[in-house]
Amino acid sequence: MGSRFERIAEEKILQAMADGLFDHLPGAGKPIEWKENPLTPEDWKIAFDVLEKNGYKLPWIDKRKEIEERFDSAIQTCEQNLKYQPGLARAEFFKQVEAINHMIFDYNLMVPAVQFQKSNYDARSIFQKLKSTKAG
C-alpha cells in the first residue's frame, strides 16, 4: 500500500518509460560497474558510488582513507623499528598515533552522522601487541 506521492511518482515513471525517455541513456543495456570502497558503510554504497561517478567527492571519505593509510604506515614503521631500532620504536609509534588521533578528531567533526565516526587508536595496547608479536 503506497502513499499518494508514491503512486504519482510510479505513474510518472511508467509514462516516461512508455514515451521512450529512458531509451537512449548513457550506459543503457550495460551492467553497472560498482567501485568497492571498504570504508563506505554497506547501506550507503550505492549512494556514494552514484555521487562519485558524477564527480562529487565527499571530503570526509578521503580523510578516512588517509587516516587508514597513515595508520597502516605507522604499523609497518613500528614493525621495522622493533626489528632494527627497538629503542626508537615506542616513542616514534606513539608520536605517529598521536598525530593520527588528531586527524581522527578532525574527521569526526566532518562526518554527517555519528555512525561514520571513528574511535581513536590506543597506542599503548597496539604497541604491546606489536611487541609481543615480534617476540613470539
How would you describe what is shown here?
The chain has a domain at 59-135. It is built from five helices and no strands. It is an all-alpha fold. The N and C termini lie far apart (62 Å). The protein has helices spanning 4-18, 45-53, 59-84, 86-110, 123-135. The model has no long low-confidence stretch (mean pLDDT 87).
SSE map:
Blueprint: H1 4-18, H2 45-53, H3 59-84, H4 86-110, H5 123-135
Helix pairs in contact: 3-4, 3-5
Q: Count of helical segments?
A: 5
Helix content: 55-70%
Secondary-structure element pattern, one letter each:
HHHHH
User: In percent terms, what proportion of residues is strand?
Assistant: under 5%
Count all strands and give the number: 0
Mean pLDDT: 87
Structural class: mainly alpha
Cα separation of the termini: 62 Å
Please describe the structure with a list of short key phrases separated by commas or semicolons.
single chain; 136 residues; mainly alpha; 5 helices; elongated
Write a compact overview of the structure shown:
The chain is mainly α and 136 residues long.
